[in-house]
Amino acid sequence: MEEKTRRLEEVPGFRTAAIEAGIREWPKPRNDLALIAAESAVPTAGVFTRNQVAAAPVKLDRRHLKATGGMARAILVNAGVANACTGEGGEDDALGCARRLGAGIDVPEEQILVASTGVIGTRLSLAKMEKGIDLALASLGKTDPGDFARAILTTDLSPKEASAELDGDAGVFIAGACKGSGMIAPNMATMLAFVLTNAAVAPKALAAALKEVVASTFNLVTVDGDTSTNDSLFLMASGVTGVPAVVKDSGRRYDKFVKCLYRVCHSLSAQIARDGEGASKLVRVRVIGARRAREARAAAKTIAESPLVKTAMFGNDPNWGRIVCALGRSSARVDEGRVSLSLCGARLFEKGMPVDFNKADISNAMKTEDIELEVDLGLGKGEATVLTCDLTDGYIRINADYTT
Amino acid sequence: MEEKTRRLEEVPGFRTAAIEAGIREWPKPRNDLALIAAESAVPTAGVFTRNQVAAAPVKLDRRHLKATGGMARAILVNAGVANACTGEGGEDDALGCARRLGAGIDVPEEQILVASTGVIGTRLSLAKMEKGIDLALASLGKTDPGDFARAILTTDLSPKEASAELDGDAGVFIAGACKGSGMIAPNMATMLAFVLTNAAVAPKALAAALKEVVASTFNLVTVDGDTSTNDSLFLMASGVTGVPAVVKDSGRRYDKFVKCLYRVCHSLSAQIARDGEGASKLVRVRVIGARRAREARAAAKTIAESPLVKTAMFGNDPNWGRIVCALGRSSARVDEGRVSLSLCGARLFEKGMPVDFNKADISNAMKTEDIELEVDLGLGKGEATVLTCDLTDGYIRINADYTT
User: Fold this and answer.
1) Lesser CB count within 10 Å: N end or C end of chain A?
2) In which region does residue A238 sit, left (phi positive, over 0), alpha (psi from -120 to 50) or beta (all else)?
């Protein structure tokens, strides 16, 4: 984006905090508790993991968003402990946090959402969290831009932030931050994303916009196909602006909001793929010509998750056979004789037959941080783009050598 | 198995050959063409890749087995070139081989089956193959035990052979050989398996037995989830024995044959997992207590294909969180509160809650070539075992560094 990136901390109608609560001690103490608080209960939407094993905070958030019809006052996030696979005790801990925070700002617990990322199977220390919540409340609004994005990191190498302005609505914008190597690092679970806007959007329209945008952004990013117990994406709209509200989930104003939200979520999700564990490249897998969009997504995902394709990208190996092979085992309809394939702009396979190409040239072209892979199934108009990263020895090192 | 391993070369009613045809020149010339020939057309069953992009030999074999009703005289195998993604020219090459071999032993081409493994997208040299076929025919029956198993290897580290005797039928046995790191190595495709028996089995019963056994052996082995364009498994029954034939696909004699076939296929498929590219361990993922067998298979496969679980096995990391997480995203019904999990015989997770265990002890127990991982879903009687291997830096090296 050409515009200057605006931070979460700058969105009118919200205050944030980032403090050290002592939850995450590995590898060394740092800020591990962050808070977003609106001035009043505001329209809030959330999408959560589809994993059948959902962490305690996810269960609580689903319940609270349902109870309030999509309104929330604050979101509390901790890094270090995922509060997943912790049974009823873990659910009590999540509720305890919501209660303490609710009491601190004098709102019912249903208006509080919580998010956790970190080790699975370890209980949160409620005592530490309660002390942390008090400290966070005391420091609300005193953080520097970027503090929030840094406090939520676990094995991520870099903070991930993005923003975009609503076309023609001066001063109205959306800003977000997220964490996640796209999967579970050494027991460090989760993709978490927080997106704030000062636009005025009704709860139902907000939920619809988020659902629509997630399908073509976060849900099309894959690092290794593993979906965490804690994955959550939140969107809050403070409405602190003079511009008319988006009230319906259709129409010009809604479409404009969706377009802006897409830009933010697309940027955040691409940052996740690029920062995948051990990744040296962002790989863009584009499938066109599928019978329908659903099949294009299935084909692109199967290619993007193939360890053989991902290691070939790491090795600058224009190994189109692996790509065609992954394609053939996807659930998309494939007619070998109609398939064409390009890598870094060069055609390698044309209507079912290999094309003569200079391997060294293509391999050189692959020595970049951005690989473009395009497959044309030649069967219809369905298309989709999935973002992933390469599979490197760094991934093995990070994931095999952590606890022992 | 306690019995001495019998070789393919020893099965009455068949002769084999293994010669150098000059198809596979990398990394250095060696035997790359092998042949199995029965004394007459005998009952033969085959199962092939489900990949939509099927290699030319697979297409030919399906056609020939259908045309003959499951009878074949000979199977020709080459290593070095997969004859996949080679268009109509490739299909002509496969047919040309079948014709040359058929002419050489004076049978119609429909009685000939062919199998290829190697680089995708490269044409077979029909001239070299024809010379090779003549040479192989001239040396039929002159090979040493084990020659066949060695000639079909590509990136495999070791030949894979197994045999078993039919219970109570003296002198009747099944012997097989296979190749494959379970996936596609540097453009080197394919799992190929060849199983021979001197038992007398009618074509329909033979096909039924193979289908039944494959479902619980080869189809439950996964190295990296990639299915090749060339995967093929053949079973030929010469019937050169005094024992009554298996004519129906049910009954005591059929069951006995299936049991014996299972032992051979189970051993061969386990050898494939253990020899997976870069593998340092065989990992046995057993799921019990699923609502049904299908769900147990789905759960076990999702765990066995999770890169995070596989790297944890490599790192001797008793990281049960990754296992539960993979379980939760599988298509099997999972109720977190009922899930229990054991690793190397030690209980790590019990009915949805972590168990206190000594991490160093379990990690030490994991320092073995055979890891046992058992998950109890606590929901029903469905069970399945999937075999896989760990994911190591060796895998990355082999697959990233080949062509460039």
Assistant:
1) N
2) alpha
